[in-house]
Write a structure and sequence with these properties.
disordered C terminus; alpha+beta; 4 helices; 98 residues
Length: 98
């Protein structure tokens, strides 16, 4: 199996309204994402890989969407997660790391 990695924008990592589980879910979405920043893991896949409950996955996805880091779209009956790559340029909600 191919070893994957994830890059997490500082704006996600340090966002004051995102908890550790939301950041973890973002990491997995980023790891699964293709060149267009799209991915389509099931809730079960996210739950299994992140080792958190289904309700925690759903709550984390809602938080990420509310803060504008992901959008969810239906494409041919499939739920697609789209990562906002502009998050790499955001600094409006970050907490300084002093």
């Amino acid at each position: 199996m191919e070893k994957l990695f994830s890059v997490v924008p500082e704006a996600v990592l340090c966002h004051p309204k995102l908890n550790g589980n939301a950041v973890k879910i973002y990491c997995f979405l980023s790891m699964y994402a293709d060149e267009q920043s799209w991915c389509w893991p099931s809730l079960r896949r996210l739950q299994t890989d992140s080792r958190v409950s289904r309700s925690t996955v759903k709550r984390s996805l809602r938080s990420l969407e509310a803060e504008g880091f992901i959008t969810r779209e239906l494409l041919d009956g499939r739920l697609i997660y789209v990562l906002d790559r502009e998050a790499f340029n955001r600094d409006d909600n970050t907490v300084p790391l002093n």
